[in-house]
Each structure stands twice: as C-alpha cells, then as structure tokens.
Amino acid sequence: MFRTEHPFTLPLGYVDDDGTLHREGTMRLATAADEIHPLRDPRVQQNEAYLIVIILARVITSLGSLGQVNPKVIEGLYAADLAFLQDLYNTVNQSESADKKVSCPRCEHDFTLAVNGTGGS
User: Fold this and answer.
1) Does the residue 121 lie in any domain?
2) Distance between terminal CA atoms of the chain?
3) Residue 48 sits in which domain range?
4) Tens-place pLDDT, residues 29-52
5) Are the C-beta atoms of residues 80 and 11 closer than 8 Å to each other?
C-alpha cells in the first residue's frame, strides 16, 4: 500500500514556550507545490538556506500536542532535530526508482547512480 504519511521521533525534541517537550510527529509526502511555492517567499529569496524551514513547516502535519507546525516552530528546533528532519524528508520523498542503473560509456561497467534528494543536506 502507498504510504503518504510517515511517523517520526525527534532525537532531542522541540520545547514550546510553556516548556513542553514535543518529540513524536508525522511528515507527509511533499507535493510539487510544497517545493515550488516557498521559492516565492521573501525569506527564501534573501537566504536560500531558509527554504528547508518553509518546506518542513508545510509537510510536517503534527508534532506532539502542537496545534500547528509553522516556520517559527521549525526555527526553534535544535540543529540535530533539523538535520534529522532534512534526512527524513529526503528519504520519504525519494522513490525507489531514484537510483538509476547506468553504464560507463568507456569501459561499459554497470553501476547504480544514487540521485540526491531535494530539501537540502
């Protein structure tokens, strides 16, 4: 069956303004709009590194008992959790067919070429 949502547990967790720790969450598969629309955001135009913040805020559907995950929440994550979510994003949005079987044009040796995911690294 085709899975569109993926549960996760943050290594450290997000601590909200009340001091509550949120670690369990869900990320959905990204749509084309999730990767295209943030490119128009002025924060991304000023700083390309902000793109992953906007994308993650769009695709994380739940985090603990938070009512909404927005860019402010993503900005408040520890670096280890941000790296974890970037890796998860790339993993869940990269299809099995993203690895391509290719042959060297000179020696004709066959090998698999891993195609990098989107969303930063």
Assistant:
1) no
2) 29
3) 5-113
4) 999 999 999 999 999 999 999 999
5) yes
